[in-house]
Design a protein that fits this description.
By secondary structure, the chain is mainly α. It is built from four helices and two strands. The chain has a two-stranded antiparallel ribbon with strand order 1-2. The two termini are about 25 Å apart.
Length: about 100
């Protein structure tokens, strides 16, 4: 497993030739998922782009402690709640309904 993987929910890296990893959680009795990870993306981009890209969310991350009063975080939460509700209504996965 990649030690830089902050959310270690899969142990297989994707490649140019195998772009999608299928995830099945039989012990949780939930739906089959397909995961598209772009582990190789940083190797394709110029350094300047990566520096600019990493700085882009910096101001929003600084506002995270005050997320209830910050526009970017209240809008993100509203969008998450809307999409979560839509997904939980469309999918018959017990896993989604546990949260």
């Amino acid at each position: 497993m990649n030690s830089f993987n902050l959310i270690p929910i899969y142990i297989i890296n994707t490649t140019f030739f195998s772009l999608i990893v299928s995830l099945i959680f039989p012990e949780l009795k939930i739906c089959h998922f397909q995961w598209l990870s772009i582990d190789y993306l940083p190797s394709l981009l110029p350094c300047e782009f990566l520096e600019q890209f990493s700085l882009a969310p910096f101001l929003s991350l600084l506002q995270l402690p005050d997320q209830e009063n910050t526009q970017v975080w209240t809008e993100a939460k509203a969008l998450f709640d809307k999409n979560y509700l839509m997904a939980s209504e469309r999918l018959s996965c017990r896993y989604l309904r546990q949260f």
